[in-house]
Fold:
Amino acid sequence: MLKLVFRSWGILAALVISFDAQAFRLEEHATLTRLAATEFEICYPGLLDISSIDALVDSNLNEDRNLPRKWLQYSHFYNPTKPILDLRKFPSEVSASDFRLGQLQTTIEGISISSAQTAAGIMDFFKQSLPELGHAIHHIQDMASPPHVVPVMHDLRDRYESLIMKTSDLPDLRLQRALCPRKLRREKYPKLEKIFQELAERTLASVKHPLSYLRDGRPRAGTWELFWLPSLDPVFGRYGDLGNRFGVSAFSIDTHGYEISSETYLEFKRLRMRDAINATFSALEWYFFGLN
Structure:
């Protein structure tokens, strides 16, 4: 009996390591959401208060903390060009992230329609729908992560996720007030599914961007596919020839030494996080203006 208990815990621990894949660490999801909310408040004052932002952040993080749903129903993986048949190898067959996102969008739209027919109206809408928006934003932000879009099966040891970017590391992530009029002139607001899809496409394209590095002290040129290599088949990709070493400035593979500057890594992730903030901003615009 005792052996069975230990064996069960061992299986559970293995599942935690294998399937607890996060596109960004939870603290980064919180940072992305708060920065987007801050920018949104600059352009649209008075629509988001502190309690609303806290609720968005909490529901965003809870989407990742619900491990049974994450393992058994909806994954956080999605490739915008093909299905990922490997998802059938999870503990049970699970859906790609876009299916969950579509459900959340439909739920929010349904709440919008039903709340418009009640006396409480707008208060009912915010109370019921804001947590659903936070869940959806989590999946949208995941689409700014190459391991989730290529995708590459990974766990908490993934170095892209381990390279934590704090607000102080992101001096270029401040919205200029001059940009607000451009945003305010938009006539149509894309739905969550379109925001999700377009961000996934940009992230998948980013792994083909140039990468400069040194091999044995000599300049070499490649792409970011050296870290995340897509598969030509409808299955997961894999870590590229440089392996799970994103963020490592100097390392050796076989008899060769490699060097990549820290700033090269930081700039790549800054751009992905900027995309995630822009997409979160767009999701907030749709929520407040696109449901009418």
